[in-house]
Amino acid sequence: MDKKKIHRKDLAILKAKIEVDCIMVDNKPINLTPVLHASIQNYCTHDDCKECGIEFEKKYTHDLYCDACLHKRRVDRYKALELVEWDGETPLVIFGDDQYFFNEDDIISYCEDNECQPNDLMLVVCRTSNLSQIDWDHWMDEVHEDWEPSAELTRRLIEFNEFLSNEPSNTWFEGKKRVTLDLEVPSE
């Protein structure tokens, strides 16, 4: 069953009265009843793109841009990233996606499966996370307010935090540097 097309300009905004629970504060009524689904956005299936003005079908209630303008904005954000040379070892990820690559073979295989070239992928160098360090606040619920840690505890905590700062998490996230690759995937 097709959904009926509803555009913002097709919806008449009317004045209406609704009953709500209120309290009086300084002789002013304060609404206590939440007005569910009050935004007109929740009812529009189509809207005009905020960028180009062309009408588009919304996939989500909060959509403001058509697919073409969304893609252009994504490409512009990608191109604004610093361009660096890939070291061939640090993992890469497709910008704004969760498709990771750990070597050239992964990239070539992905491109063959998706009939594209590596430079079409908008690849970004990954960064790794660090394990967070432990501070004295960790124990504040377990000790009295005037508690002072022993010299031995202080020494060992400093030592452990140094260990944590050098311990890799082996977890990768999208970084803020883009790459282009001199890889060519042969077409069949």
Per-chain topology:
Blueprint: E1 22-25, E2 28-31, E3 46-48, E4 55-57, H1 67-79, E5 82-83, E6 92-94, E7 100-101, H2 104-114, E8 123-130, H3 151-166, E9 168-178
Parallel strand pairs: 5-9
Antiparallel strand pairs: 1-2, 3-4, 6-7, 6-8, 8-9
Notable characteristics:
188 residues, alpha+beta, five-stranded mixed sheet, two-stranded antiparallel sheet, 3 helices
Number of strands: 9
How is the largest sheet built, in terms of strand order? 5-9-8-6-7
Q: Largest sheet, described in full?
A: 5 strands, mixed
Q: Which class do the helix and strand fractions yield?
A: alpha+beta
User: How would the global form be characterised?
Assistant: flat
Report the radius of gyration as a whole number of Å: 27 Å
Spans of 5+ residues with little confidence (pLDDT < 50)? none
The succession of helices and strands, N to C, reads EEEEHEEEHEHE
So how many helices? 3
Averaging pLDDT over every residue, what do you get? 88
Strand content: 15-25%
Separation, N- and C-terminal Cα atoms: 41 Å
Portion in helices: 10-25%
Write structural notes for this entry.
With 188 residues, the protein is an alpha+beta fold. It has a domain at 1-75. The protein is built from three helices and nine strands. The strands form three sheets. It has a five-stranded mixed beta sheet. It has a two-stranded antiparallel sheet with strand order 1-2. The chain is flat, with a radius of gyration of 27 Å. The model has no long low-confidence stretch (mean pLDDT 88).
